[in-house]
Amino acid sequence: MVCLNCALFKNLFNSSISLRTFLLRSTELSMARVLSLFRSQPFLHLVARRKPTFCKMSMDTRAREVFAAAVEAVQPDTVVCQSIERKEDSVVIDGRTFTLKHNLHLVGFGKAVLGMAAEAERIVGDHLVKGVISVPHGIQQTLQQHGKDHLLLKENSRIKVIEGAKHNLPDTDAQKAAEEIKHLASELTEKDLLLVLISGGGSALLPAPIPPITLQEKLDVTRRLAGAGATIQELNTIRRALSLLKGGGLAHHAHPAQVVALILSDVIGDPIDIIASGPTVMSQVWPEEVLSILERYKLLNLLPTSVKEVLDKPNSRWKEHKEESDTSGHVLNAVIGSNGVALKRAGLCARELGFLPVVLSPSVCGDVQSVSRLYGLLARFACSREEPPPDIATEVLKLGPEVGVESWDLCRTMQVLEKGRTEGWGATCLLAGGEPTVELTGKGRGGRNQELAMRVGLELRSLGLPPKGPVFLSGGTDGQDGPTEAAGAITDGGLYDEAKAQGLDIDNFLINNDSYTFFSRLSGGQRLLVPGLTCTNVMDVHMLLIPAIPIIIR
Ligand SMILES: Nc1ncnc2c1ncn2[C@@H]1O[C@H](COP(=O)(O)OP(=O)(O)OP(=O)(O)O)[C@@H](O)[C@H]1O
Ligand SMILES: O=C(O)[C@H](O)CO
User: Fold this and answer.
1) What range defines the domain where residue 5 resides?
2) Which residue from 235, 440, 450 has its CB within 8 A of the most atoms of ligand 1, so it is best to mutate?
């Protein structure tokens, strides 16, 4: 094993080597050695210096408040309001100024787009000529019923709302919306400004299959892919190859108008070419990539002739207007809300509620079992009274990257946890986000957040801590975890015994993926997190609250 000398580590902080170089070299090290080096460094600027205030609220209540703050930060109207600065007859977006001369047009597609459009119209409606948005079936009625009138368009709005994509699947209503959006974009001139509002669910709400592919044929291909377990990256790569508007098609049709896209991200890493299949992000179709995805999921032989025909002529939609499509300088894509934004606000709220906050990562993915194990290890690390045995840190650093968390983030987080523990800085709130997966083996009713919460509850139990130990919350920011009414659940090390005392066999519920039934029956559903319709979606939020009282694990 190559030994890292301290000079290399110190150099990192003098910026003489890049973080990437450091991590590459550090993979050759003993994990415990890396961690011990991190401990010896002055990281305190990353950590709050003031001692947190004492808070009388229960951990459960505080967890719910922090989750609510995360969701609040990414409300569709909030993110739009924060990203458009109106200055008389111009707007500043992402540092760029655009002149308004009654030349503004608006299109949008996605689950959060109605609220985004309502806010955009409030800010720049006086210059708005026309708009069309494609939003989920029934959303206007649902928003009305939930008293969320501020997310609805005003009566005399210039924006036409088309509802479609029932059950998140493209349908003829969504296709009609896509046609109207394409038409609106195609009529624009170089004097026009097109504001494009994009959020998760946008792919299903903007179906425009390349002829001769029919909507049903395209739906069949994407459905099969999704059912076979394709990732969103794989799925949307195929969608882009089969669509007139995805993969930059919309921006292409809008040329030569200036296009400004405001994007609320629901994908890990906020890749603008993947979110809603990137209608404003010019992207090439690589036949090898498309074919290898279809082959991976054994779909090559099941493709209809029309799809084969289109795939045989990749990028043909661009060739007709080659000159124009090369001119992508007229597009500005800005991510205005994401899991990272939600976690940041959650951290601020946690601080107000007396916690020392630390954000682990917004990119947690992988199987919920591995993710729960990671949180269990971090809780163990945080609650050890003595110098944590190096094997916990080593395990954390081994497991973290498997679930999308970088070594750097793990080391930084463990350093904060250790400070909290050894220097008595009070309670700590570890925050993370992303979108883990559940391998469905049973037929029960549940979701990945509730299942993760159950599994972390079991991990916390295995720490053998006294009551009032760490608390864990997992919740979907869209307010819905799988096909259930809950967004997630809150657990702690007492979950198993509580369930047992009420005659509930937790292992059986887990085997059957029946986490919603479990939490509904347990203690009158008290542990469920039910925020109702949130009108937004930036994936999931995870929270591990570690109490201030020194806890003992030996
Ligand atoms: N019984 C269950 N137990 C655990 N997880 C489940 C269960 N049923 C479905 N799921 C998981 O729920 C997820 C789908 O639910 P949900 O609609 O909340 O996902 P989503 O990715 O947030 O959707 P969207 O992209 O529309 O926001 C899938 O990952 C699926 O594996
Ligand atoms: O619409 C989609 O493609 C997904 O929600 C990812 O953004």
Assistant:
1) 1-42
2) 440
